[in-house]
Amino acid sequence: xxxxxxxxxxxxxxxxxxxxxxxxxxxxxxxxxxxxxxxxxxxxxxxxxxxxxxxxxxxxxxxxxxxxxxxxxxxxxxxxxxx
Length: 83
What we know:
4 strands, 1 helix, Heat Shock Protein 90
């Protein structure tokens, strides 16, 4: 994981976790920009660009929205009934 605010210690990240029944939702917001990996970089090679691939493999829903005001990542996982 890269540290988006390594050069700006005043940078803030907001994390919200919500559970409704068996549905767990995590929303992460910051004022940084989402950086897409190069289109010609295959998954699994050294370097950057596997975060979204891992999120999509581990979560039931993923959404990344990025714009001038920052980035919001929404992740949803359906938990087992006995969780």
